[in-house]
Design brief:
Elements lengths: L3 E5 L7 E7 L5 H13 L8 H6 L4 E6 L2 E11 L2 E9 L8 H15 L4 E6 L4 H5 L3 E2 L7 H4 L9 E6 L13 E5 L3
Parallel strand pairs: 5-6
Antiparallel strand pairs: 1-2, 1-9, 2-3, 3-4, 4-5, 6-8, 7-8
Pfam families: Acetyltransf_7 (PF13508)
Protein name: N-acetyltransferase domain-containing protein
InterPro entries: Acyl_CoA_acyltransferase (IPR016181), Bact_Acetyltransf (IPR050832), GNAT_dom (IPR000182)
């Protein structure tokens, strides 16, 4: 995966330079710290730091200098790719970083020939709906997708179809993704 440069701007100030890159095992502690507030609110599944280190190859992280400000994991689910553990630091939300991380996951899914990008969430689907995802009714959930659900979490499944040639543009004016070669 190539390293990408993200620029996130605050109103009335110069843009911050963010770098999106593949996670490394040594990022596990920062991923756990970034995820903790979401875990406490029941929005993310708690994962041990050792598990995050072992699965670091699944993650892309957005960094501002040495600080990790966003992350997202991806994993196969049948002929689809599921986005998981998507979270952005509270002081960096609303700048398009999450949208760009989902866009990177979509690009990966398309490159792998997946039919869909999936997201399980307890946060509500409005945000995913704005990115083109639709909620998957329980009676339409495939068996390989059912395995994603953790008992008792009451998550909803959202799907972005990748069968069309149109690539979703997940970038926003506040946070534009620029590809750079590593």
């Amino acid at each position: 995966m190539r390293e990408s440069v993200l620029t996130a701007s605050r109103s009335g100030s110069a843009p911050d330079v963010l770098v999106a890159r593949p996670a490394r095992p040594e990022d596990a502690e920062q991923i756990a710290l970034l995820s903790a507030p979401f875990v406490e609110r029941g929005l993310l599944v708690a994962r041990a730091q050792a598990e995050l280190a072992a699965r670091s190859q699944d993650f892309v992280v957005a960094c501002e200098g040495d600080r990790l400000v966003g992350c997202a994991g991806v994993a196969p689910a049948g002929d689809s790719l599921v986005v998981y553990n998507l979270c952005i630091a509270a002081d960096r939300q609303g700048r398009g970083i999450g949208r760009d991380l989902v866009g990177m996951a979509e690009s990966t899914a398309r490159r792998l020939g997946c039919s869909a990008l999936l997201a399980l969430t307890r946060h509500g689907g409005k945000w995913f709906g704005q990115l083109g995802f639709t909620e998957v009714p329980a009676n339409e959930t495939r068996d390989e997708w059912r395995a994603l659900f953790r008992p008792g979490r009451k998550s909803s499944l959202y799907r972005l179809s990748l069968t069309s040639e149109q690539s979703g543009n997940r970038s926003t004016p506040a946070c534009r993704l620029k590809q750079t070669k590593e």
